[in-house]
Amino acid sequence: MKTNAIHPLRPQYHFTPEANWLNDPNGMVYFEGEYHLFYQHHPDSSVWGPMHWGHAVSKDLVHWEHLPIALYPDHNGTIFSGSAVVDSNDTSGFFGGEPGLVAVYTQTEMIPGSDASKQRQSIAYSKDKGRTWIPYPGNPVLEDERYPDFRDPKVFWHEQTEQWIMVLAAGDRLFLYRSPNLIDWTFASEFGAEEGSHDGVWECPDLFELPVEGGDGASKWVLIVSIGDNPSCPEGSRTQYFIGEFDGLSFTNEHSADTVLWLDYGRDNYAGVTWSDAPGTESERLLIGWMNNWKYANQIPTVGWRGAMTLTRKLTLRQEREGVRLVQQLVDAIRQLRLSGSQWKDERINESRDLIVGQCGRQLELEAEFELGTAAEFGIKLHAGGGQTVVGYDVRTGQLFIDRTESGILDFHAEFGCRHGAPLEAKDRLIKLTLWLDRSSLEVFANDGGLVMTDQLFPLEGEDGLELYAVGGDVHLRSLRLYPLQSIYATVAAEAAHG
Ligand code: FRU
Fold first, then answer.
1. Which of 114, 212, 415, 489 is positioned for an S-S bond with 317, CB 3.0–4.6 A?
2. Which atom of ligand 1 is the closest one to the Cα of 294?
3. 24 in ligand 1 pocket by Cβ < 6 Å?
4. Which atom of ligand 1 is nearest to the CA of 81?
């Protein structure tokens, strides 16, 4: 992995393309010991353009090997988002009775003489562990010209009814289709025109079943839907989810139609979907998202590459007072990057006594446990120097917030420098936060993964201070653990140096 590791803003343990543009994660599938990650890629420019599927593989979801582009535009159009599955029983007939990989994706083509495009679904298959892909000669396999937005197929094998299911975004709703062989698709149902948030166009759906921890042993279906940017919404593009039932034909939302559940309360986690066929899929799903926002994605101040993925997260379901909710934890393998840590215990912090931790670098894992005292607000200042980014808790409103209004480079978009929050209950008067800081990104996990906020930050050189603060009273810091993190390029570089 020879990714340019030297640019000061290039994430060092998140996936980035070797060069140029990246958006949505696509076609994530586990096959014969490898986790595949494909992604929306423009290989010739660092802004969005004719889409290809870039490709990388990993054995541990932490270190990635870049592979050549998997899918190129052809006579059916450019290659938009989609999924990939292991066709274990060769239902497609592509693999001579053996298992193989099938990708299902949208192809987009301009309609001659207009500025409209048509979007149709195609498939391609690989007989060599994803190294080369053969587009199916009968492409496209699914089209419906009534819908200009008709994209992002996510396909899975539905065990109970022994058929393939496809969830597809169609403007303000989802369509579900079924198939015996991944080639012939029949309409099954639609969902969502009147449900959840419609702040933007619906994109990149995913549908899967998980057991509910702390429930009655029953499992539930989770339906993830990303919603595109709407210039009048400060949040930009973001991702919602629904909880309910799926019977092989249609999905039923168990919440009221106006309930909106957000996957991530930060500004930079979009188009996330889960891995197909990963080990342990019955009890948890692995999700990765695009760590960016369509509001400013084409303008972020990176040089040579543009776009990164979130860290890979394990999704589970937890029974909460208000209903069943998604919980996100990072995959355990990420902890292999920890270098030797430092620890603080039982510190009292108030206006006249910040805890100045010092210059801590930009690749960090930080775990803090606060017990509420009299302070009206407390938290953590990152990248402190001339500027800062604050992860704080506002006790009066019960909100966890990220404030990036002074976080460094802001001038590339008027709405980037913002403060945004999410409701977080201090159970037993405790607030537990885990932060993952990686040069130009921050992922915050609270309430044991019940609340997640992901944000990009573009700090200026030399602003590496870390401080804990409280205002309007004091707060008890029960513990703080800090681990500098190794770059995922470090072991490769060390191996190369030792010949
Ligand atoms: C989501 C999205 C998808 C589309 C792709 C194009 O970010 O707009 O709906 O397939 O990006 O790159």
1. 212
2. 7
3. yes
4. 10
Q: DSSP secondary structure string, 251-295?
A: EEESS-TT--EES-SSSS-EEEEE-BS-TTTTT-EEEEEES--TT
| CATH placement of domain 20-332 | 2.115.10.20
Neighbours of 497 (CB within 10 A): 7
Output Rg (C-alpha) for the chain, integer angstroms.
23
Q: Mean pLDDT, to the nearest integer, of 78-91?
A: 98
Expressed in angstroms and rounded, the spacing between residue 10 Cα and the centre of ligand 1 is 23
Q: Nearest to residue 68, comparing CAs of 95, 43, 32, 100?
A: 43
- In tens, the pLDDT along 446-466 reads 999 999 999 999 999 989 999
Decide: 26 in ligand 1 pocket, CB within 6 A: no
Which band of pLDDT confidence, cut at 50, 70 and 90, is reported for residue 1? very low
pLDDT over threshold 70, residue 498: no
User: In this structure, are residues 152 and 201 in contact, taking their beta carbons and an 8 Å threshold?
Assistant: no
Question: What are 157's two structure tokens?
Answer: 């094998």
**How many residues belong to the chain?**
499
Q: How far apart are CA 241 and CA 261, in angstroms?
A: 6
Q: What is the CATH number of domain 338-497?
A: 2.60.120.560
Taking only the tens place, the pLDDT of each residue in 148-176 is 999 999 999 999 999 999 999 999 999 99
Domain with CATH 2.115.10.20 in the chain: 20-332
CB distance 170 to ligand 1 below 6 Å: no
Q: Judge if the beta carbon of residue 271 lies within 6 A of ligand 1.
A: yes
What average pLDDT is seen over the chain? 95
Ligand 1 nearest-atom number relative to CA 80: 10
Expressed in angstroms and rounded, the spacing between residue 312 Cα and the centre of ligand 1 is 20
Residues 6+ apart with CB under 8 A from 7: 302, 303, 304
Nearest ligand 1 atom to alpha carbon 203: 9
Q: Is the per-residue pLDDT at 357 higher than 90?
A: no
pLDDT at 385 over 50: yes
**Residue-wise pLDDT tens digits, 362-371:** 999 999 999 9
Q: Classify the C-alpha dihedral 258-262-267-268 as positive or negative.
A: negative
Compute the distance from residue 124 Cα to the ligand 1 centre, in Å. Answer: 19
The answer, yes or no, to whether residue 493 has pLDDT greater than 80, is: no
Give the C-alpha separation, 306 to 41, whole Å.
10
Q: In what order do the strands lie in the sheet with 117-126?
A: 78-87, 100-110, 117-126, 134-135
Q: What residue spans in the chain does CATH classification 2.60.120.560 cover?
A: 338-497
Kindly give the distance from the C-alpha atom of residue 225 to the centroid of ligand 1, in angstroms, as a whole number. 12
Name the residues annotated as catalytic.
24
* Burial of residue 234 (number of CB atoms within 10 Å: 0-12, 13-18, 19+): exposed
Mean pLDDT value of segment 90-119: 95
Residue listed under structure tokens 């450019």: 78
pLDDT category at 235 given cuts 50, 70, 90 is very high
